[in-house]
Amino acid sequence: MTSDEIRSVVIEALCQVAPEADPAQLRPNVSFRSQLDIDSMDFLRFILALHEKIGIEIPEKDYPSLTTLDSCVGYLASADRCPKSSPAP
Amino acid sequence: MEFGTLVAWRKQPGESIRRGDIMAEVETAKGVIEAEAFSTGTVEKLLIQPGQKVPIGTAMAIIRDNGAAPAAAPSIALVPPPQAAPVTTPAAVAPSAVDQTRLRISPAARRLALELGIDPSIVRGTGRGGAIMSEDIERAVAAKRAAAPTAAAAASPSPTPDQAAAMRQVIAAAMTRSKREIPHYYLSTTIDMQRAVTWLAEENRKRPMTNRLLYGALLLKAVALALREVPELNALWLKDHVELKPAIHVGVAISLRRGGLVAPALHHTDQLTLDDLMKNFLDLVSRARSGRLRGSELADPTITVTSLGEQGVEAVFGVIYPPQVALVGFGKLVERPWSVNGQLVSRPVVTATLSADHRVSDGHRGAVFLAAVDRLLQEPERL
Fold it and tell me: Which of A78, B31, B219, B337 could pair covalently with B147 via S-S, beta carbons 3.0-4.6 A apart?
């Protein structure tokens, strides 16, 4: 997946738990918690949504790496965590 | 007069139903709620069709009682009728044609109903002889409030001014009554959470993502088990007497994303395994925040647990939600110096508080309760 594709998936997962979130207003380096009043239950639902959409297992110890949009994209893009993009036909 | 529109039937004629089954989805002016059956039996006849708009209180279906005694638990949605059971539109417990002059209702409840715009003839009384009490009116309003977010969620992420005002009005009425009528006493204790936190991290390390536990699940289970030891905190205060409840349905305070608060019951909290408790907890929060709570979940709590630690506060001094008799608060998990066998060490600790109704329990019993919560959290593997 490209960074843009990952970013789209992250925003989609976030909007599942915080439907009032406006992706255009999301500040990429500010924590979801402070921007969207995300609590631990919302965060768990967000992580589960990522798991469902991307199919990756995220250890609990890595949760602190997933608190902002940019850090999420960075984490998921690193170390081949996400599936490769399909080659263009 | 308010109206409700049947969105869909979940049960059909001839189907057997059990008390608590979801019978239908009904949209009111405030949103959609899931209407539950209040008795066990067989659906005999559906009286209205999807899309049909009828006044609140209209009988929707007939449920033939198979002989099982209907349970007496009140609900905001449907009411157990004495024999063949007409299922009514939500927030209704009696036909709208009931003569209000014959209602058994306290003067305070009648005034409150007038203030909050609730028709008392559609409220089920829980006082002696079925008399309608102030708390019954508040629960009816709370049911309407809980239904409100659904419509709002579908249309807009923010509540309308009317919905927000209605929710504030309900909270204001309940909290004012609580502070006016309930003689609160407050206790606080600091709990060493080292074992619980360590056990939880190790447990979650072994579990797949979908089965991981939240710290809050441990707190809820510990509270529920402690209530077995101090049953007078698992009760309701009804007018002038306490009614102990055999089942433990802990209310979980959930802030709504669009503003406001609900505290639905996590049914049979003490009997759930941690896995089931976590699953039900996740489901309850998801449904609360998307406006899909059930009537019984709003009617059944006897105690509320609120955890405000994530907002950074260290202690909660709660206001009891009447007719409940206690509220347990948890603050932030913080590292503090702690003495262990004479050695000063750093430990994660949490401040647990109890606000309790002094008409129902005394400080000694409250202290026993908090000590039990502490003790239970020292053995997280046994929760």
Answer: B31
